Amino acid sequence: MEIEVKGGESEILGREGWGEAGCGSECSGCCCCFGESGRRIYGLQYHPEVTHSPKGMETLKHFLFDVCGVSADWKMEDLMEEEIKVINNTVAADEHVICALSGGVDSTVAATLVHKAIGDRLHCIFVDNGLLRYKEQERVMDTFERDLHLPVTCVDASEQFLSQLKGVVDPETKRKIIGKEFINIFDQFAHELEKKHGKKPAFLVQGTLYPDVIESCPPPGTDRTHSHTIKSHHNVGGLPKDMKLKLIEPLKLLFKDEVRELGRILNVPVGFLKRHPFPGPGLAVRVLGDVTQGNALEVLRQVDEIFIQSIRDAGLYDSIWQAFAVFLPVRSVGVQGDKRTHSHVVALRAVTSQDGMTADWFNFEHKFLDDVSRKICNSVQGVNRVVQDITSKPPSTIEWE
Ligand SMILES: Nc1ncnc2c1ncn2[C@@H]1O[C@H](COP(=O)(O)OP(=O)(O)OP(=O)(O)O)[C@@H](O)[C@H]1O
């Protein structure tokens, strides 16, 4: 069996006295697993939970059910009830809670659960940062209000964000600017709620998932300890110290597919739960270079909408983890309507994945790509070339910036 072994950790294995040991085929014979059935001690030097590990799930099932003797009687309904109890015990009857909704699955499910627990003492905010997809604001606000009955304030801050991003091309700087603007807006929202209810919100709901917790957890042997601050920084770009908000993270023991299951129990529309992930910094990380230059955002919105709608029409949306278009900071020469053009180039990216940690590029049929490319060049002014991204993760990341 071939397995991927993380380098640099093999010296703790293969000590004398251990029983059976296995070797990795691609790592010069270093130990990749061992077992001592007498002492009932087992160890693995690879990630069985990763989809790329063959028989990983079988290995885990064998360990849990045959070795440890546990039974699979865990139910999502029980978790929901438990979390509601925890939320009610945490938030006193006169306290208020805020939640930043992105229109994504995680924050929506987290907010819906907290709303079920504490009702309208939950106050949600959705920010139009000028970096949203085609008609995104209307589409998500409609779902929040009509289907989920969530109390949501929509703030149009597009000018504020775009003016701060003018001339910025470095991806990290873009992310930091966006994170900082989000915080200013959340802070202002909290102040307004304080004026209205006479009390500052004490809690912030975040849609932290278990993979985020794992990623925030430092490797064993380092002096560091796990910190929630790491995730909150990751999530909303860092919270201002004077907000003093305590975190409510009801999904922090769940993986994405489990969050979707919880969402189904909470009656979040299935179409919404199946939405592809969308990055917090929005189209800013899909327009390479200065997002405010020319009509890059508008062009990208139109291209992206055509691509996604074509994927839906072809019945492929649910087979793809994430699909989107990227606006490239180059122009190419073309011939359109008997005229020479010097126009924009856009890239299409679609990947499959189980958890976003690794991903493979999606292999569209030739006809699909041909149709989409023609449709884009024929209907989006200023685009004369469409290319496809055919790299997996690794070596690339899913997003381009
Ligand atoms: N436009 C927005 N308005 C309000 N809050 C936002 C917005 N975009 C992102 N956020 C907040 O920042 C968090 C992190 O954004 P990111 O896109 O990385 O989310 P995520 O962890 O994938 O979760 P989700 O599935 O909810 O989008 C979101 O969960 C949400 O709380």
Automatic annotation (TrEMBL):
Source superkingdom: Eukaryota
Annotated pathway: Purine metabolism; GMP biosynthesis; GMP from XMP (L-Gln route): step 1/1
Residue numbers binding ATP: 102-108
Species assigned in the record: Brassica carinata (Ethiopian mustard)
Keywords from the UniProt entry: ATP-binding, Glutamine amidotransferase, GMP biosynthesis, Ligase, Nucleotide-binding, Purine biosynthesis
The enzyme's E.C. designation: 6.3.5.2
Lineage of origin: Eukaryota, Viridiplantae, Streptophyta, Embryophyta, Tracheophyta
PROSITE patterns in UniProt: GMPS_ATP_PPASE
A Pfam family assignment: GMP_synt_C
EC class name: ligase
PANTHER family tied to this protein: GMP SYNTHASE [GLUTAMINE-HYDROLYZING] (PTHR11922:SF2), GMP SYNTHASE-RELATED (PTHR11922)
Signal peptide: none
GO cellular component annotations of the record: cytosol
InterPro entries tied to this protein: Class_I_gatase-like, GATASE, GMP_synth_C, GMPS_ATP_PPase_dom, NAD/GMP_synthase, Rossmann-like_a/b/a_fold
GO MF terms, alphabetically ordered: ATP binding; GMP synthase activity
GMPS ATP-PPase domain segment(s): 74-275
Protein known as: GMP synthase [glutamine-hydrolyzing]
